[in-house]
Amino acid sequence: MNLTLLSEIKHQSRLPRLLSVLLHVTIITLALISGPISPRHLPGGWVNLALYAPARLILPPDAMGGGGGGGRHALTPASLGKLPRAADKQLLPPDPEPSKAVDPALIVEPSIVAPQLAYLPQLKLLTIGDPDGVPGPPSPGRGTGYGIGDGDGHGVGDSDGPGAGPGENGGCCGGPLRVGGGVTAPVLVTEILPEYSEEARKARFQGTVVLNTVVHEDGSVQVIKILRGIGFGLDQNAIAAVLQWRFKPARRNGKPVASYLNVEVSFNLR
After folding, report:
1. Going from the N-terminus, what domains does the chain have, and what CATH number goes with each?
2. Could you count the other beta carbons within 10 Å of the beta carbon of residue 89?
């Protein structure tokens, strides 16, 4: 048997082993990004954590994030109206003027690139405009990019991008983004365990607190709302701990962005 053939046989025998190693590394990496975290022992009990993107977004009052704007070099500011439907992809930029299509079947509903939030209603095409615009005849605004407003892009407002409101590169109303569709998940790097309250321990009480949070661009955490409270001082203990957490923030196009994250803190006595 010549040396070349022997070398090829050895090389082929290493491939399954190499693929197995790569597969295990991938699985371990994915497990560390999100999902349940191993239970940790606390004085008086145990706590189990789970992190996941919320199915429905709850906007904080001082939200900051992606947005957009546009216009068509009109002489007048953007006309007053409501935001169009939010979508993951934009087929047609928003336009305050009615469609010129003869066949209604050919009309495509304008949209902005933003999470599909519950408070953005389905609209008639004639009501589209800038919520901060001026009353008057339909006007796309003085900006560029075939959107609405004084910005640049396919969105609505005075910023840049296909979304709406302050910010750029998409999003709505200055709000944080939802993980997925090009937005990577934040990664927990500093974890503080909540305390098991004395009141809950004496009552032998167990339960799960669910918090809706925003992980900001600097990795800090803001608690927006308690989605599920259980009392006995455990809600407050969970919030106090989560506010001390630090993350590697979510990223979009390589840049840190604010993102929504639900946090489950399960207290048990096992």
Report:
1. 31-59+179-268 (3.30.2420.10), 65-175 (no CATH)
2. 8
